[in-house]
What does this fold into?
Amino acid sequence: MTSEQAVARLIEALEREGVGYMLVGAYSSNLYGVPRATDDADVVIEFGSFNIVEFSRRLGAEFALDRQMMMEGFTGSVRNIIHFRPTGFAIEVFRLGDDPHHRERFARRRRQHVPDCRCEAWVATAEDVVIQKLRWARRKDLDDVVNLLAVSGSTLDWAYIRRWTDSHGTSGLLDQLRGEAGVG
Amino acid sequence: MLDRGTTRPAGCVMGSNESALQQSIFRDKAAKARHMDPGLKLTAGARLFDVARNRMIAGIRSGHPDWSDAEIDAEFCRQLQVLREREDRGVFTPVADL
It folds into this structure.
């Protein structure tokens, strides 16, 4: 099984079990920008009664749950990692928390067809990819934003993006990256 | 200014010809991405990861021709872990440490 097939298995399992989820991170920025390699698939899950230990076990013996939980400093999101042993690819599972933007991002998620998958997947919108990556602002996040703006900038809801970047204090960075991407 | 997604090393000073070429490559990449199948774009990350992994493993094997497959795989995993820890630094904290 390849890493791509491992993610397809993850999506099919989430759909089968009726779990509220969406793909975020590089998976989502690749959809709207210029695709690049990534060593993980980030997925936000509405935990509720979701049991990640049981879920990971049902994915199969090639998947291994790292029980160490990590907390992301900007928004307080909690993360577990499921490792795909054959290739070292990682599935980073984030719990949907109370962060106001994360709540709205989840409500705005959309469906996207996935090749080699017998279903569609829930994915964050392009606007929400930009907003979140500006918050993290690591070098690779900013590169992703510039690429996304260059590819999809003319179709974005800029009023929505501006509302959140003003709230997060990232509007100056957004303007700089718009200049780099050539988006007026 | 515009150096995202290219191979130019950070801090390299470029002349106007190089800069124009770089911008042309960037625009070309963006135009191609606009016409790609969205489903294929969504799953490209893992596909490209496997390509990069195979190249990294070939590189490790070439540097250590006496190593077993298990040793090569362990070295690949070690290098990947170093990269992940560097990316997580300052962003993620183990919950047990809070």
Remarks:
- Confidence is low (pLDDT under 50) at residues 6-12 of chain B.
- The interface with chain A takes residues 1-2, 4-5, 26-27, 29-30, 33-34, 36-53, 76-77, 80, 83-84, 87-88, 90-96, 98 of chain B (CB under 8 Å).
- The longest helix of chain B spans residues 38-63.
- The two ends of chain B are 40 Å apart (CA to CA).
